[in-house]
Design goal:
homodimer, alpha/beta, Rossmann fold, Luciferase, domain 3, GMP Synthetase, Chain A, domain 3, 8-stranded mixed sheet, 6-stranded mixed sheet, 29% helix, globular, Acyl-CoA synthetase (AMP-forming)/AMP-acid ligase II (chains A, B), ligase (chains A, B), AMP-binding_CS (chains A, B)
């Protein structure tokens, strides 16, 4: 029997209606090149309406894709709303992409317009004849403000695209996914749940996760949905910028990758600064090191551990455990998401807390395909019990109650003497060693064993030159956690560890670096 | 551009998957006629699977409607899941319906089976030849347990019906609405938001709102979605039962109409009992009297004020304000809901904190029609800007930020000398008078003025015979809140105030009572 409930589109239109009508006085603070901009949701809504009229004049409609190469700023936020409100798709482009990658995604997505931040020099090298490039600056502001506010937005079906994002492809071209109004709405609503992030109108929220990638975990949408004060940290935010913003604006919840908080914590210690307003740091993209969790805790800040990827729009698990061991797990999936683990042949593996397998996932904000890429799509999905599951490429263990523990990326596992070694496990162990700031472990080819683990280590300033390979290996041995053959053959000390354009350890570059260093 | 996100049904299947797989050890406690039953989600899931096999054997499938006339018990909860999991519609029937109403809705909905609680004597008088009646007792339990657990549930489209409910029609036949899997999922997810109810796995939740009406605000679904311990208070729960359950089970959040909490508070005071575990009472169906809010606060319990109706599935606003004046408002609508106010011609009225108008509403869990009743549907909806809005029949004022204040039901407003008097305002004012336990105000026909207000008052035991009409009127005057002509012409003292089958003041019966009393 059909229900009698009306068809109501779960869309960004409802989020905008709430921001404009229910929370006109809530604030948005944006760090930009010129300084700090502060305005109310009311003023923001007016700007969105003017920008929409400007975009409409430029020919943007429900068939358009509009690109952005921009930092977390109020101008970017306005585009986050205007484009989807008009029924178009906002294509966020990674600021750290190589010009050739920018060129590829702009042409592949068919961007009609591309808005770029003033410091994105790479744009000059991009050839995209069909796209008009617009610089986000004062002149742009004046142009927008000269337009009357658009007073009517078209109704958009909830399954239409709203935001498009490409993976930071380590092999081949980046792959695209298009999030829908519906998926953004449901995921944003989920972020308000107490056991997810629990964003409320009383919060002051700072997404350090970039708006140019996986829509900053939908945090901007979730914040405006519930009237929270939103603090956008702008271009290339360093630990000094973040600390100032948190203190000046009273940030209560901040969201970003572990490396952001590692650097911030280091800065706070050096400068002897505390952050009394900050209650929660939500981190994802990699397991938060225990030293980081403890360091934040000493400042009165709780760490939430989240997990997700480009193909799952944003996050699908959050672990809020107070227990530091338990917090190393990614945790249980959010409502609207389902998971299984499978072996390489696609057979289900039990949730026994021991068996490794690839995590497969389906749900209300999981992609069902790659944009215009049937071949890539074919390799990344499997069918179980008549349903489609996305293959995450993450090797995990599930405990009997479904709490996920990521062992490693399938392609980063190290196969030594026919047995698997988890690079993630070793990295996390090395990072619990007091002198270590950051660490990465990769497998290098070995004639006898197939592959052997090698560690790259960044020491804290005060320990540089004072700690050697043997100290690290002795520390690992003293943990009594790993079999002897897991211990790295080499420990290479470096000044920093290369990251991908989305802030993750770039293991491809790492392997090359190591090859060079070991030969030398 | 279509999004690439997969089609994933938001359904009770996902809630069940979570309960069974992610929270096997969470508890359900159920007060039944035989005593208290306690089991885990794991055991619950097994029972649901056995019950589903039993239902399947009885011919229940995706075309079936299955009725229940039952209290808040574990058996009812199992039916809440089994029937929708099979794709059928669970038709919850009001235990307090007159046999003729039961008969009407059972036949009108076409119930294949009707499960009823042992104490529902009215069932014997119901004639419904096409329905098979099954008593929820030990024998039923044995029958269910003799069936093997069903291991596969069909995929159900999210817009299919899951739960059906009829209004307690004060004029004419009850009107039916059918909630969808989707609406139940989204509304349940909303209940986890910090600023809605904020249910979490750490909570112990007791829905006193009946499962036989508007699916107990979806609280059973929301609780199982997040692994909360669920306490079901069973048949005809009195204040003594509620107090015992809260103390014994450590209830942290309880949900019910104001009258439930008025009686509980009265009982707690008389018996000198406190409820240390209880943090929050969520109340709806009527404005919570200030005395109630204060009384609960003295016990360390916060009051959340919610608003909704059968046609909006459950609740659409929650006000958590700490300010007692502000808390009398219904508050802002939840994400996924939109409201306007209109005059009798359907023109929009401004949100100025002064202008009265009828609240119209649309959203993800608002009905778009009445079940099989085109005529009733026609009168209850209007179209504004090309969109359908449900006419709530509530006269409200909206402040400039969209916070709703219900003035009265349109049909309960009193028109005196061409001006409107709010019966709700007067009731709430009288209920702030210390000697008053409950009060109701209705309009009675008056030759000179058209209508005049008359109050019915229940005094606290200790004040009976000691407080008279003049005391009440003097108190109202001393408030300096109402013009003289608003004051009731009569104050009639009664032992109790008649309620509808859903626990609201029954103003139809009240008017008849008053007519009798005033003639006498």
């Amino acid at each position: 029997m059909k229900s009698t409930i009306m068809d109501y589109n779960l869309s960004i239109h409802n989020v905008f209606w709430r921001a404009e009508k229910l929370y006109p006085d809530s604030q948005i603070v944006s760090r930009v090149h010129e300084g700090k901009v502060r305005y109310t949701y009311s003023k923001f809504s007016e700007r969105v309406r003017r920008l929409s009229e400007y975009l409409r004049e430029q020919g943007v409609d429900s068939s358009s894709v509009v690109g952005t190469i921009a930092w977390n700023t109020h101008r970017h936020l306005e585009l986050y709303f205007s484009v989807p409100l008009l029924g178009g798709v906002l294509h966020t482009i990674n600021v750290r992409f190589h010009p050739s990658e920018m060129e590829y995604v702009i042409n592949f997505a068919g961007d009609k317009l591309v808005f770029y931040d003033v410091d994105v020099e790479e744009v000059k090298k991009v050839r995209a004849e069909k796209s008009k490039f617009v610089r986000l600056d004062d002149e742009f502001d004046r142009e927008v403000n000269s337009h009357p506010p658009l007073d009517y937005f078209p109704e958009v079906d909830e399954r239409e695209g709203a935001v498009m994002c490409f993976t930071s492809g380590t092999t081949g071209h980046p792959k695209g996914v298009v999030y829908s109004h519906r998926s953004i709405f449901i995921h944003s609503l989920s972020l308000l749940a107490k056991e997810i992030v629990g964003i409320s109108s009383q919060d002051i929220v700072m997404p350090v996760v970039p708006m140019f990638h996986i829509s900053a975990w939908d945090v901007p949408f979730a914040s405006l949905m519930t009237g929270a004060k939103l603090v956008l940290p702008g271009p290339r935010p360093g630990p000094d910028h973040l600390a100032s913003l948190i203190r000046e604006e009273g940030v209560t919840v901040a969201i970003g990758a572990p490396t952001v908080w590692i650097n911030l914590l280091d800065y706070l210690r050096r400068e002897k600064i505390d952050l009394p307003s900050l209650k929660v740091v939500v981190t994802g993209g990699a397991e938060p090191p225990k030293g980081l969790i403890k360091g934040l805790r000493e400042l009165g800040i709780r760490t939430y551990h989240a997990w997700g990827m480009t193909e799952t729009e944003a996050i699908t698990t959050v672990n809020q455990s107070e227990n530091i061991e338990e917090l190393s797990r990614q945790g249980k999936v959010m409502p609207g998401i389902e998971v299984k683990i499978v072996d390489p042949s696609g057979n289900e593996i039990p949730w026994d807390g021991k068996s490794w397998g690839e995590l497969v996932i389906r749900g209300a904000w999981v992609t069902g395909e790659y944009f215009n890429s049937p071949e890539k799509t074919r390799d990344s999905f499997l069918t179980l019990e008549g349903k489609r599951w996305f293959r995450t490429g993450d090797v995990v263990v599930l405990d009997p109650k479904g709490s996920i523990k990521v062992v490693d990326r399938a392609k980063d596992l190290i196969k030594s003497g026919g047995e698997w070694i988890s690079s993630v496990d070793l990295e996390n162990a090395i990072m619990t060693y007091e002198p270590v700031l950051e660490a990465a472990v990769v497998g290098v080819p070995d004639l006898k064993w197939g592959e052997r683990p090698v560690a790259l280590v960044v020491l804290r300033q005060e320990y540089r030159g004072k700690v050697g390979k043997e100290d690290v290996l002795k520390y690992l041995e003293s943990m009594n956690r790993f079999p002897k053959w897991w211990l790295p053959d080499e420990v290479i000390f470096v000044d920093s560890i290369p990251k991908t354009s989305t802030g993750k350890l770039d293991k491809k570059v790492l392997r090359t670096t190591i090859k060079g260093r070991m030969r030398a």
